[in-house]
Amino acid sequence: MSSIGGRQATGKLDFAGRLARLLILPPLLAAGVATVAAAENELEFVVKPEVVHRQLDGKTCWFHPRAAAIPGAGRDGAPAVIMTVQKHLKVSDFYSGMWVMRTDDLGKTWSGPKEQPELAWVREPDGVVVAVADVTPGWHAPSGKLLAIGARVRYSPKGAQLSDVKRAHQTAYAVYDPKTDKWSKWTLLEMPPEAKFDFARNACSQWLVEKDGSLLLPVYFAKSAKVPFSVTVMRFSFDGRTLSFVEHGDELKLNVVRGLCEPSLVKFQGRYYLTLRNDLKGYVTAGDDGLHFGPIKLWAFDDGTELGSYNTQQHWVAHRDGLFLVYTRRGADNDDIMRHRAPLFIARVDAEKLTVLRNTERVVVPNRGATLGNFGACRIDENQCWVTVGEFYIGTKPHARGADGSIFVSRIIWAKPDGR
Questions:
Q1: Which of 276, 282, 275 shows the shortest CA–CA distance to 300?
Q2: What CA–CA distance (Å, rounded) separates 408 from 25?
Q3: Neighbour-count burial for 215-249, b at 16+ CB within 10 Å, e otherwise
């Protein structure tokens, strides 16, 4: 184990004891354990990747695994963790209905993937398939319900995305009640009536629940898929069954290729931070109320060089004492990987300057010859956050570098509990 900046990490005996209690895990990757201590205040953590499922059938692979914790619903007072996941069907952006994995013992054992009939495809008489993809689940504590939110997609029989009806590209949600262990069917989220929201997706995006129970939902939108997208954060109320639009904030624009998309939102030390995907570069901004933000800024390291993340997602990991970004980038001996989408990195963010601290960068999921761009990141409890991702690899034999269609859970385990 090592510390950043040559400083001796503190509290190692206590941290080792806590790890021994926390890490009751299935077999781990040979990649081992990395320990990081942020130089500013010794916010030490362990990165521990593990494989929780794999598929190597030559037909499909598991995609978009994203997790959410239900406090106290697991074994012996632990959180239950629900992970939504879909099959990639060998055509670009063509996905199955929704499947679910679950653990009640912080990952010692998992059930699933189990297909959820309520969240399955809906076939129309002309053969069009209606599905929901790019889903991110999250716990809504005020109602005691879990929400899954993603992009409603219309597929042709061959898997092409269609714009055959008005507002074909929208946002949908489903509600899970842990008391009954039942999911609702997908419900279309009612967006504002203006034409600029005819394409409006919350997709692959981290969203927030505020203290008053409202949701802050980052959305990318446009009149159609043929023009650059803008981003805004929308506030919705939730009564335990229905999401209802309340207001939206600033409209962030970038007239470059497809514009801005797949935004992710986090709250850290009273401020709100938004990371934004663009085809050529990644961007970031921050604001005080979750709806209004400063000018977007190119993601860069603290030495002034560009981060090198492009045309894929970035997501947040937050501790009360530190803000972190999970991302992919160029320049990591990964020119053979499509869009440089492996490995996944984690690094600390300077929350004032909106830069990534280069000397804190660590691999959170390794490059095994397959892309890792469609991932999730979530808080599980005060002790750990998880980064979840599926290898985009469809084959009958493992890749020469090791990819075998695995679903990874990579644990970010804090030395100091995140008591929020």
A1: 282
A2: 13
A3: bbbbbbbbeeeeebbbbbbbbbebeeeebeeeebb
> Are 269 and 313 spatial neighbours (Cβ–Cβ below 8 Å)?
no
- Measure Cα distances from 39 to 3, 7, 331, 350, 362 in Å: 8, 7, 24, 12, 14
pTM above 0.70, yes or no: yes
Tokens representing residue 359 in the block: 């000397």
| 10, 1 contact by CB (below 8 A) | no
CA angle (413, 414, 416) in 5-degree steps: 160
Tallying the residues shown for the chain, one arrives at 420
- The number of C-alpha atoms within 13 Å of 192 and in the hemisphere containing its C-beta is 17
Residue 198 has pLDDT above 90, yes or no: yes
The DSSP line for 192-243 is: -SSGGGSEEE--S---EE-TTS-EEEEEEEESSTTS-BEEEEEEEEE-SS-E
pLDDT of residue 131 exceeding 50, the answer is yes
Name the residue among 334, 366, 379 with its Cα closest to residue 34: 366
Per the CB < 8 A criterion, the answer to whether 340 and 311 are in contact is no
Share of the chain above pLDDT 90, in %: 89
CA 101 to chain centroid:
16
**Mean pLDDT for all residues in the chain:** 91
